[in-house]
């Protein structure tokens, strides 16, 4: 407890606006130590959240579960604590998608390692994912029109929002814009490779 308190005091010096809302532990389920640790964080936060991260992949994937505690027993003579599960929703920023995708690709490599890809490769993989998603959407629409699948109003509203967000632009203008962006990307890649070559050459000259 003293260690956690000291670490929190140090953290507040760097991020004074952040507060404790709960704690996490690795494992598949609640353990006998969870009650004691949760009791400590109940002093630091109101109704703290307890997260469990299944790093052993017992269910075949890294499950993340969330709980809140509730006292259990007769009034005035509480005999225990019960953890109630919460609904967990995964949300990440667009910039974090690169790291998430990179971690996903390590599953299919024998060494469980994967290097970073170039910017051009990332553009190609992103375009491929968009094409796959569009294929899925078109297949769903065709099934609805043919009567194979019952239409879902919520899906239709999402598709309508998607169509409305697409800017009105001619195919020629879109192609010119895409080629311009690709040329800019290639120029940045060329300059970064040139800089790396100059740095490597400079290091060799210094050693000589």
Automatic annotation (TrEMBL):
- Specify the domain of life of the species encoding this protein: Eukaryota
Q: Which InterPro entries match?
A: eIF3f (IPR027531), EIF3F/CSN6-like_C (IPR024969), JAMM/MPN+_dom (IPR000555), MPN (IPR037518)
Enumerate the UniProt keywords alphabetically: Cytoplasm, Initiation factor, Protein biosynthesis
Q: Where are the transmembrane segments?
A: none
Q: Residue ranges of the MPN domain?
A: 1-73
Q: Name one Pfam family in it.
A: JAB
PROSITE patterns from the xrefs? MPN
Does this UniProt record's set of keywords contain DNA-binding?
A: no
Q: Which PANTHER family match?
A: EUKARYOTIC TRANSLATION INITIATION FACTOR 3 SUBUNIT F, EUKARYOTIC TRANSLATION INITIATION FACTOR 3 SUBUNIT F-RELATED
Q: What is this protein called?
A: Eukaryotic translation initiation factor 3 subunit F
User: Native species of this protein?
Assistant: Ilyodon furcidens
Name the lineage: Eukaryota, Metazoa, Chordata, Craniata, Vertebrata
Q: Which gene encodes it?
A: EIF3F
């Amino acid at each position: 407890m003293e260690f956690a308190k000291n670490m929190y005091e140090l953290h507040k010096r760097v991020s004074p606006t952040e507060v404790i809302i709960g704690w996490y532990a690795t494992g598949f389920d609640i353990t006998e130590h969870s009650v004691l640790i949760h009791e400590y964080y109940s002093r630091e936060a109101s109704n703290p959240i307890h997260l469990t991260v299944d790093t052993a992949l017992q269910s075949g994937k890294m499950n993340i579960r969330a709980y809140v505690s509730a006292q259990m027993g007769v009034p005035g003579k509480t005999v225990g604590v019960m953890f109630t599960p919460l609904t967990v929703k995964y949300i990440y920023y667009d910039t974090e998608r690169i790291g998430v995708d990179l971690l996903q690709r390590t599953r299919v490599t024998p060494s469980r390692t994967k290097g970073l890809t170039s910017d051009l490769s990332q553009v190609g993989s992103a375009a491929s994912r968009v094409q796959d998603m569009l294929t899925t959407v078109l297949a769903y629409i065709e099934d609805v029109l043919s009567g194979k699948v019952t239409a879902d109003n919520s899906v239709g509203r999402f598709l309508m929002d998607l169509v409305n967000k697409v800017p009105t632009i001619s195919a020629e203008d879109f192609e010119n814009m895409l080629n311009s962006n690709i040329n800019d990307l290639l120029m940045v890649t060329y300059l970064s490779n040139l800089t790396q070559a100059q740095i490597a050459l400079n290091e060799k000259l210094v050693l000589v």
